[in-house]
Amino acid sequence: MDQNDVLDTLNTLIETCKDGEYGFQQCAEHVKSTDLRTLFNDRAESCRRGAQELQSLVTQYGGTPDTGSSASGTLHRGWVSVKGMLTGHSDEAMLEECERGEDAALERYRNALAKPLPEPVRAVVERQYQGVQRNHDMVKAARNRIKMASS
Q1: Residue 8: exposed, middle, or buried by beta-carbon count in 10 A (0-12, 13-18, 19+)?
Q2: Which among 106, 116, 130, 136 counts the fewest CB atoms within 10 Å?
Q3: Residues 133-148: what's their mean pLDDT?
Q4: Using DSSP, how many helices (H) and how many strands (E) does the chain show?
Q5: What's the number of domains the chain is made of?
Q6: pLDDT of residue 134
Q7: Residues near 129 by beta carbon (within 8 Å), at least 6 away in sequence
Q8: Which has the closest alpha carbon to 27: 17, 18, 36?
Q9: 4 touches 54 (CB < 8 A)
Q10: Per-residue pLDDT averaged across 71-76, rounded?
Q11: Alpha carbon 96 to chain centroid, angstroms
């Protein structure tokens, strides 16, 4: 894998982290539960730190780190806003949207890990993939608790 491919892969993951950061922040603004607000704010901070770590790697490999989010992330956040307006920003709806966002993040990390990345890059990507999986699992568990409570 040449250096440009490594840099492209890392920049895609930076966009993914930024998408997660912005998506979790938006959901935190709209949920009613203070526990969920804390969860979403914590996850947004985790995504922010992940993007910074990847940006440092891009610089180490001689590239220019991406600083924004992806077009699909912007669309997803727009959908969160629309769905929130339609559902009154219910906590369950916000959790469902976060879970969808984390599904997309997992897919991007899996795609990155399927590539022949240099070992130091692979180690970071693998560790961050595990973090995205934890985010997904936390959001899914919270959504399931809310569903059970409303049944």
Answers
A1: middle
A2: 116
A3: 92
A4: 5, 0
A5: 1
A6: 93
A7: 106, 109, 110, 112, 113
A8: 36
A9: no
A10: 50
A11: 14
d(CA 25, CA 58): 25
- Token pair of 110 as six digits: 């899996």
Sequence-distant (6+) residues with CB within 8 A of 80 are 23, 26, 27, 30, 94, 97
Rounded to 10 deg, the angle between the 91-113 and 3-30 helix axes is 170
Distance CA 10, CA 58 (A): 7
pTM score: 0.86
Q: Write down how long the chain is.
A: 151
CB 12 within 8 A of CB 108: yes
Find the CATH number of the domain harbouring 123.
1.20.1260.10
Q: What is the C-alpha separation between 66 and 56, in angstroms, rounded?
A: 11
Confidence label for 121 from pLDDT (cuts 50, 70 and 90)? very high
105 exposure class (CB count in 10 Å sphere: 0-12, 13-18, 19+): buried
pLDDT tens-digit series, residues 92-109: 888 988 888 899 999 999
Which domain covers residue 63, as residue numbers?
Answer: 3-150
